Please model this.
Amino acid sequence: MAGTNAAPPPPGGPAPGRLDALMDAVRAAGGRGPAPVDRWNPPDCGDIDIRIKADGSWFYMGTPIARPALVRLFASVLAREGARFVLKTPVEKIGITVDDAPFLAVEMAVEDAAEGRTPNGRTLVFRTNLDDLVRCGPGHDLRFAPGAGEGEVVPYLHVRHGLEARLTRAVHLDLMEEGEVREEGGVPMFGVASAGRFYAILPAAGLGLSE
Model:
């Protein structure tokens, strides 16, 4: 991997070859598709200097991990435990740093109920930057966090095991195009519907919309 042996570890950092050992452990655990991390309870082996930046790029000791296959390998064993993100195998778990969400939702499509694959009705389907396909609905819900400006929101999609994808700006705009106004708790709300659920975003009145 580019950068794996480019520099000595910082004081208190991972031992030399630590990343290689982790790669071997992940491959031994399967390494193809999401692993059953919720079934494993290995010992905590501290942290490693792997960072996922807000733009979805992965770094090891400050050097980009350039191989998509290696990123997918690590992502397959990524788990969230409270506020901490860990790479988990049957024999160990190691903490990493995630600046925002570990994934990005980079594409969205609408799956119509008429296609017969959406028993709960029209469904929003998202593709992540690591090519996960996620059908928004029960278990894969949207949430909207407050943005930096007044009335701004940042949308996130639950992918698996507490891991979320932040929608890119382009996908965010696509999502807003699918919005509608429904009454929630007696208040007209602007939001989006998917797989039988309605995800309220903002009060319609604040957007100059009416039901």
In short: The two ends are 55 Å apart (CA to CA). Helices lie at 18-28, 68-75, 169-177.
